[in-house]
């Protein structure tokens, strides 16, 4: 695609501003041409700030035929139908997480992608920071030795009032609690660096929030490499942090941030017998991009220009979504769950709640 990519944004809430800013940072390669929101007034204010016409809805936006890329910033329960509509129109899609509420819904999106000239990509911005890219590359090259263990903790805080929006805290509209809607960011980053998972044993509970879903989960994930990773997802943690730790033979690499990182949020501790060149390589790799939407959006534009698969393909996103489904299945059925086990015959294929959370309905 030689001309500028024409972008339409669906949903103009808080996260949409990150998408609009990413477009604005690429003035030679992208332009915002249309926005839509169920709240017409909010859409108008958004368009006044960032540009683009205000469409009545997604169908109206697509009918004009001038949108190449649809950025889905709408609530999770709308992503599947909206993604299918955009793909039918031949547009590509860049969707916020979670991209669908279940594996069944996501497989509908994959089928729509196969029938379309466009593609479907999921926002996974933490994969694209400079340090994460360095770490994934060096581990694949063998510079760090074997992966031993890791930590993947999303310890956030959301008060009861956060769930006043009717779609939050419900299986049918949000898909799950912090495992699905919050921890997915760190879990996806961990998998993008260390590779595929093999088995998970988990617990999940509703401790305090007025929700149908969990507000806390914990899991031990065994990866194909043999490494074992501790995963905790919480909305009950007053000192909020997102913490990733990777213990390799040659070094420990840590990342602590909240909603986005820069180079300075990372730390490498070399093993006593590690070559000095490893620390030198780490220091030489400083100065890369942070983990904001702009870093991934640049790769999205590259893919559209070059006619290549998008960064974070549907297979990549499905691998992460399958682990989330397995965490719920393990927690609710109180047993280990292996990769590939959740197929169309499993109740967790159609809903992360499976046959129902053990604690019952919303309080």
TrEMBL record:
<dbReference type="InterPro" id="IPR055170">
    <property type="entry name" value="GFO_IDH_MocA-like_dom"/>
</dbReference>
<dbReference type="GO" id="GO:0000166">
    <property type="term" value="F:nucleotide binding"/>
</dbReference>
<dbReference type="InterPro" id="IPR036291">
    <property type="entry name" value="NAD(P)-bd_dom_sf"/>
</dbReference>
<dbReference type="InterPro" id="IPR000683">
    <property type="entry name" value="Gfo/Idh/MocA-like_OxRdtase_N"/>
</dbReference>
<feature type="domain" description="GFO/IDH/MocA-like oxidoreductase">
    <location>
        <begin position="136"/>
        <end position="242"/>
    </location>
</feature>
<keyword id="KW-0520">NAD</keyword>
<dbReference type="Pfam" id="PF22725">
    <property type="entry name" value="GFO_IDH_MocA_C3"/>
</dbReference>
<dbReference type="Pfam" id="PF01408">
    <property type="entry name" value="GFO_IDH_MocA"/>
</dbReference>
<feature type="domain" description="Gfo/Idh/MocA-like oxidoreductase N-terminal">
    <location>
        <begin position="5"/>
        <end position="114"/>
    </location>
</feature>
<dbReference type="InterPro" id="IPR052515">
    <property type="entry name" value="Gfo/Idh/MocA_Oxidoreductase"/>
</dbReference>
<protein>
    <submittedName>
        <fullName>Gfo/Idh/MocA family oxidoreductase</fullName>
    </submittedName>
</protein>
């Amino acid at each position: 695609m030689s001309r500028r990519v024409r972008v339409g944004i669906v949903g103009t809430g808080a996260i949409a501003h990150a998408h609009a800013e990413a477009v604005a940072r690429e003035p030679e390669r992208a332009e915002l041409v249309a926005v839509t929101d169920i709240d017409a007034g909010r859409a108008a204010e958004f368009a006044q700030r960032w540009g683009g016409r205000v469409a009545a809805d997604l169908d109206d936006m697509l009918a004009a035929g001038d949108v190449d890329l649809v950025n889905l910033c709408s609530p999770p329960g709308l992503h599947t139908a909206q993604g299918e509509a955009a793909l039918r129109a031949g547009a590509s899609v860049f969707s916020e997480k979670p991209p669908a509420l279940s594996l069944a819904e996501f497989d509908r999106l994959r089928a729509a992608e196969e029938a379309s000239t466009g593609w479907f990509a999921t926002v996974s911005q933490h994969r694209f920071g400079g340090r994460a890219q360095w770490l994934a590359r060096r581990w694949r090259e063998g510079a760090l030795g074997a992966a031993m263990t890791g930590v993947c903790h999303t310890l956030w805080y959301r008060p009861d009032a956060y769930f006043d929006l009717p779609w939050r805290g419900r299986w049918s509209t949000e898909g799950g609690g912090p495992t699905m809607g919050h921890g997915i960011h760190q879990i996806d980053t961990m998998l993008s660096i260390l590779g595929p998972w093999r088995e998970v044993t988990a617990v999940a509970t509703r401790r305090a929030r007025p929700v149908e879903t969990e507000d806390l989960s914990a899991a031990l994930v065994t990866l194909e490499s043999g490494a074992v990773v501790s995963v905790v997802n919480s909305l009950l943690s007053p000192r909020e942090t997102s913490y990733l730790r990777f213990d390799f033979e040659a070094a420990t690499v840590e990342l602590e941030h909240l909603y986005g990182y820069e180079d300075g949020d990372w730390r490498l501790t070399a093993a006593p017998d590690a070559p000095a060149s490893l620390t030198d390589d780490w220091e030489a790799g400083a100065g890369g991009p942070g983990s904001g939407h702009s870093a991934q959006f640049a790769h999205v534009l590259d893919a559209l220009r070059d006619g290549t698969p998008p960064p974070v393909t549907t297979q990549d996103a499905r691998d992460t979504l399958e682990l989330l489904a397995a965490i719920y299945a393990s927690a609710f059925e109180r047993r280990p769950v292996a990769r590939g086990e959740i197929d169309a015959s499993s109740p967790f294929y159609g809903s992360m709640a499976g046959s129902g959370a053990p604690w019952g309905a919303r309080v």
